[in-house]
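Notes from hallway chat w/ T.B., transcribed later so I don't forget. T.B. wanted the structure written out for a chain they're using in a teaching module, and asked if we could keep both sequence and structure tokens in one place. Agreed to drop them here.
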Amino acid sequence: MTPAPAALAACLVLAACGAQGAGPGGPAAPSAPPVRTSAGPSGPSGSPGAERAEAAMVEQARRKGQGPDGSGVSRVASPRAAAFLWETAGDRLCLGESALDGGMTSFKCVRAVTAGPRDSPAASLLFGPGALGGGGRVVLAAPPGGEVVLVSHGGARAETTFVRTLSSGWSGRRLYYVVLPALPRGPLDVTVRSGGKERVQSLPTTG
């Protein structure tokens, strides 16, 4: 998926790379796993533009008392933009997004209570939906001890990236950044694997 540059107004419009083809929901073929992995905390640096954007984002967050804790910053990069996710010392999770052409940058944080009860069997919507190069994006957390294996909307598979495993304050939930072909106008179908079993959850969105 290579969206054209768009004006940045009320929300940041990103462009995502490495999109997978749309297809019906259900398990992916072994040769094309639906969930990929980000660089992770302190992982490969990526492009110089992403490095500069991360440094600026972290400095902005620290000035507001919401800088990353010792687990570092995880990056989901693309040619024109990047997303950064980190935890703070106060059990907050923050999402920063930055256009690499020097355009708008923004970040927001949520508290662990957003993920729901520690014994919840369901995935949680932490951020989004937000605009993303003509499509959309959300950030999900799997239930404690579980993992997200597929996200789809209207029968179209979404590009789903495993970002990191969160701290004990978040019950060790796995975190995912999801790129959607369009802003969702209804629930997402989220396939969650837990205890060796898979089930499909209908996850409401605000779109």
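Follow-up for T.B.: The radius of gyration is 16 Å. Might be a good example for the class.
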